[in-house]
Amino acid sequence: MARESRSVEGGRFLDLPGLRMHVVESGSGTPVVLVHGFPQSSREWAHVMPLLEPHARVIAPDLRGAGRSEAPDGPYRLDTMCGDLVELLDALGIEQAVVVGHDIGALGALGLAMDRPERVSHLVVLSVPPMYVKRSPALLRSARHSWYQVALAMPGIGERLLGGGDQRLPRWLLSTSAVRGGASERDREAYIARLREPDRARAGSRTYRQLVVPEILRILRGGYRDRLPTMPTLVLYGADDPLVSRAVLDDVERFAPSIRVEELPGTGHWLVDEQPTDVARRILEFAGIATE
Fold it and tell me: What is the per-residue pLDDT across 40-82, written as a single tens digit (0 to 9) for each?
């Protein structure tokens, strides 16, 4: 059984078997787990949670190495993230949840849906293509916008880029590919400040080295084409996001009929920050959660 202690800054800490995790919760009813992207934290969902909590039990964890969760010296692979999410569900006594993931968190949500489908009732994937998209010229064109991922994955160099000097790369990450401004300046500074802690900069670099880059290569090789999630899946992307386009998602509904693909017009990569009201509405509608 996970031990619990209260967080001074809101939320609480859970001592899971492999991680001391910080989690923010609100509401009651159908469990909805919100998994943040990089270099963000549960703070990403601050404008979405109040819209969901009148209708659902909302859980927003800080992933391993992010926010106020522990940043242990260990692996940061996809199976590690999925294991942390399973331990979180176990600690909260949740058998099955709606799981929503953005950016890197979407990879974790997809991994959980493939490895432990009985724990996911509905899957919502934000700002990334599903891992089983077909290899195509459009996918390769999108991949070229991810040049920074290789730099962040390099031992020593990645952590200096994240936490050293004036932190130009994480500042650029949080401001690029945003049509409507993305995260507020206050939120950006909060994310960047965390990366000045050496253990969190190391964790960020390891996440790219052990999770992001290997998984992108596996996707490009078609390594997930035989592992389609069976639960209803919504892929939601910004129309002006250079990292994912409708062309990348061509035919995905044909070979994975449980998938629905929807576009948010006038929105970039940081759609949770750019259009929180629309994101919340689409989550509730897709999961069939009553709002009256």
Answer: 999 999 999 999 999 999 999 999 999 999 999 999 999 999 9
Pairing of β 30-35 and β 56-61: parallel
> Which residues lie across from 221 on neighbouring strands?
none
The C-alpha atoms of residue 275 and residue 278 are separated, in whole angstroms, by 6
Residue with tokens 């974790």: 108
d(CA 93, CA 87): 10
Tell me the C-alpha to C-alpha distance, in Å, between residue 240 and each of 170, 188, 271.
20, 21, 10
Residue labelled with tokens 């999770």: 211
Sorting pLDDT into bands at 50, 70 and 90, what band is 128? confident
User: What is the C-alpha separation between 18 and 87, in angstroms, rounded?
Assistant: 8
| CB within 8 Å of 292: residues ≥ 6 apart | none
Q: How many CA atoms does the CB half-sphere of 253 hold within 13 Å?
A: 9
